[in-house]
């Protein structure tokens, strides 16, 4: 099969599509024939060496939508099932940017019934990150939340999920994204500087870091999306950062919300697997609304 890997760190030019053996599922694993796989900023981080792994061949890709085509013992899924999954890991030998991928059964959920594979592939990593970050903030219904990067993939899901939890959501994004961010459920919108100390919580999907703390009230909460990179606490603000985990049961809940129209699955552009390097280049240009998706 073909798979996108990196063997040295750098720009999009280091992404190589190579021939590798088709992986076999072990006990409590399934093999998925990939129909679509999203490209995320974490893939660019892996490619550029942010997470280490020098000297290894590293497979790219975390999100997958496709069809189960082989199962291990006690796999709990059947050949032919349409599924989505999260293949967690920054230094795995094969990722989802491939024709086949093996994942643990606990990472898998049935695919959305109302979306094609390309759109479904945008859900696992970004929606799980948003949901798990909101869990860390642990805000009660009625509390105020500022979501930075509210028009982005994680930020957009965060706005929708937070509004569904009964939070009063303000989105921080570029001025021309206001209509879109409000359509996701934000009752407030800010472009530029938000009011200091105005929010019970800040979900910093734009990775602003310490400057975003000023917008949380004294004793409030801040959650970032870069593991173990949250800023130090000030004014009693509780600071944390989400490290997304593969959770098939939670992913199934998010799939149901997508099927119910609560979550919007956004695709910016589709690339063939052979053009993985071009997709990385496009991601690096910025200004992407929705996800870039690779199809074998």
TrEMBL record:
Boundaries of every Enoyl reductase (ER) domain copy: 10-294
Pfam families documented for this protein: ADH_N, ADH_zinc_N_2
Lineage, broadest ranks: Bacteria, Bacillati, Actinomycetota, Actinomycetes, Kitasatosporales
Recorded superkingdom: Bacteria
SMART domains to which the protein is assigned, alphabetical: PKS_ER (SM00829)
Organism encoding this protein: Streptomyces bobili
Gene3D superfamilies per the UniProt record, alphabetical: Medium-chain alcohol dehydrogenases, catalytic domain, NAD(P)-binding Rossmann-like Domain
Name used for this protein in its record: NADP-dependent oxidoreductase
